[in-house]
Model the fold of this input.
Amino acid sequence: MKRPTFTLLFLLVLACHTSLLMAQEQPAPTPPTEGAFQSGVYRNMLAEWGLSDTDIQERIDSTFQQLFYGDDTNERVYYPVGEDMAYIEDINNADIRTEGMSYGMMLTVQMDKQAEFNRLWTWAKTYMQHADGPWQGYFCWHAFTDGDCIDDNPASDGEIWYVTALFFASARWGDGEGIYNYRAEAQAILDTMLHTEERNSRFASNMFDAETKLVVFVPDVGQNRTFTDPSYQAPHYYELWARWAAQDNAFWTEAAAAARQHWQQAAHPVTGLMPNYAEFDGRPRRSGDYGSVFYADSWRSAMMVAMDYSWFAADPWQVEQTNRYLRFFHDLGIGRYTSQFEVDGTPVGNQHRSTGLIAMNAVATLAASDAIAWDFIEEFWNTPIPTGRYRYYDGLLYLMALLQLSGQFQVHTPA
Done:
């Protein structure tokens, strides 16, 4: 084994010292009192931490290149189909999900990549959206790579992200013909969300509960519409729909307020953790060994809270919540905390490290006022781009975090 030279050792020590010094010298972040939607100012947390614009853009570009055009078997999750379509595959489960397809569309519209956006939208529209039948207008939540739906029912977050990505596409590129009339397609999905029950479908319901104004876990006629998922709450998106939708505008304003209130009810008062699934009143929903715990779904809740604050700064509680949440993980140890807990902080399940959670905790810093925030930025920046079996979820959240933390995840207003 070759020994490292003195020069190499010196450089390693210097790098560690510089990183530590950077963290020590950084003052506590100051969350804005006015959201970016009003001010037009999108914070670049990576630059505030001390990174150059060149380094930030190189990381964003290399992450996109790897996830979209990297090695077929170990790096990419985006796979072109024919001349005009593509899908994003959940590698671990060997299927295509509205979660990943809608995330892919949001990422590509934020990065001004219309060709990739259109390919993804064409595949989703062709194979996943129901043109007729009891689920008409909704998207089957996952499908095989040949386009056959595995389950006909939707997962509500997919539709939420589709709508917002389509509105942004209308703003960035203008509306075309047919399925590329992005704004018309967004409006059609919104109409399905709130008016499906008017068709008296035997299987499908509206996607939002009429009484609580909360998004339901699955818009069916059974138990799945009687509870929700805290990470599905997207008040910063509903605020935009309230301004841009052709109808039901007052409902979307109420839905935004309801979502923010739900987060206050769902977050544990000490740890700040939220469950994967929750009753409408915020109590953890018992569903096997997954629903009531903090795990893969709920990793995203911190991102959603922070992005809502970043864009609208409508609820000062979100800063308190974010500080509490980050303090829980910081006390466990940066570089050591695992990814699955009861909401009171008790570790459960398979205790492993997750790049997806590291990325989401970094995004949470957009709403933090505690100096520990910079430790999460540093941990994220030092985490490599995901590869291998779990690169789908970890990778998409990683690229999402890069855009959000660099101020490149923005509201694009349709004409």
Remarks:
- The chain is about 50% helix and 5% strand.
